[in-house]
Amino acid sequence: MSGLDVLISGGSMGGLFTGISLARSGHSPTIYERSAGALKSRGGGIVAQQNIRRFLSDHDIVDPDEITTRSHERRFLTEGGGVERAVSETMVFTSWDALYRQLRNAFPDEQYRTGTTVTGVTPETATATTDDGTERSADVVVAAEGGQSATRAQLHPDVEPEFASYVAWRGVVDEATLPAVCVEAFDEMFTFYQGADQLILAYFIPGPDGETEPGSRRLNWVWYDTLDGRDRGAIFTDTSDTEQRFSVSPGQLREPVRHRQRDRAAKLPPVFETLVSETPDLFVQAIYDLTVPSMVTGRVCLLGDGAFVARPHTAAGTAKAAGDATALAEALASHGSINEALAAWDQARTEYGTTLVARGKQMGDVRLNLD
Ligand SMILES: Cc1cc2nc3c(=O)[nH]c(=O)nc-3n(C[C@H](O)[C@H](O)[C@H](O)COP(=O)(O)OP(=O)(O)OC[C@H]3O[C@@H](n4cnc5c(N)ncnc54)[C@H](O)[C@@H]3O)c2cc1C
Fold first, then answer.
1. How does DSSP assign 37-90, residue by residue?
2. Which of 81, 162, 164, 298 is 20 to 30 Å from 215 by CA-CA measure?
3. Which listed CATH number (3.40.50.1000, 3.50.50.60, 3.20.10.10, 3.40.190.10) goes with 5-37+114-159+292-367?
4. Which residues line ligand 1 (CB under 6 A)?
5. Which of 128, 92, 104 is nearest to 13 (CA)?
6. Which residues form a coiled coil (predicted)?
7. Residues 190, 200: contact at Cβ < 8 Å?
């Protein structure tokens, strides 16, 4: 099959991977993205798994080496800062903003409609309604709307994200602003500290404009921490006094919350304590699990975080979105009808997502001592 008309709701990673794969397979995808302008990074790093790098090179988007950094050792520190264990291993990292920029540039502007929200779908006819009241029918609708997908809520009203009882504090710092001793401690390393009920890790990612040379990169850290009796509502109430359900963005944490977390950093190895205290803008996200029973309803597909959210320990959220997209293009190319292709895709990707979420739960509960 080729020449299918595909409407994609959501123009972040999942929507762009899908749009690019389908366009390169001879289909006509249109992306609707509710945000008005370019998406702004939450400032984080991502593990550039092999399938992401392959996607970039196979589609002639960019040489992955141009937007990635590498570590050559996984290193575990003691509370005092010594090296407890070191394992030789190469890992490849990028930043959300560097990857998004490359994918967005590879997808035509005229097929990417910003400031447009999909408000409802009719699965039988592959129809999407947008917030200006327009209805458009296509061959297939793909909802790549992230963890809070409204299309998923319409199709699976009983499916709710389940809070995992801990949060991830995160931050990104320009290496140029860090003390040399701190840069040296983390350089070329994927560094961890595992405490009794917390885990912090750090790795280098490209700079704000994708720079990968030493001196211009950023250091990215993620600190998983239990609430330890603290009120989740208070942590997630931002500077505008709104209680957020899943995350408080950089710059929007209230001062007392920020201070309290910085104080908790005193129990970390000294290089991590320095890293946290030198970070201008901490932010926080709730860790949760999400599983749908099926990714396809009629002619509507749920893709990426809209279908499954696995805990970040799996380092697989963006890679899964790329895998879903690539597999969808392959299924449409290798089956005689749309319905057969969607059924095969649904079976394979639902099984993958379900297994990944289960693996993430197990990894997180062991690491945070929640068993
Ligand atoms: C702005 C932004 C910044 C991010 N920064 C990071 C980061 O720094 N590090 C990291 O690890 N992960 C980050 N993520 C999350 C990461 O992209 C995802 O976990 C993963 O890549 C899966 O992507 P996704 O496309 O399935 O979901 P998401 O990335 O969550 O994208 C969903 C998209 O759908 C749009 N959308 C939702 N509902 C509708 C609707 N009804 N109609 C139209 N559009 C809709 C949203 O505006 C969003 O752009 C970020 C996500 C976003 C949106």
1. SS----S-EEE--HHHHHHHHHTTS--GGGG-EEEEEEEEE-TTS-EEEEEEEE
2. 81
3. 3.50.50.60
4. 9-15, 32-35, 39-44, 46, 96, 117-118, 144-146, 150, 304-306, 317-318, 321
5. 104
6. none
7. no
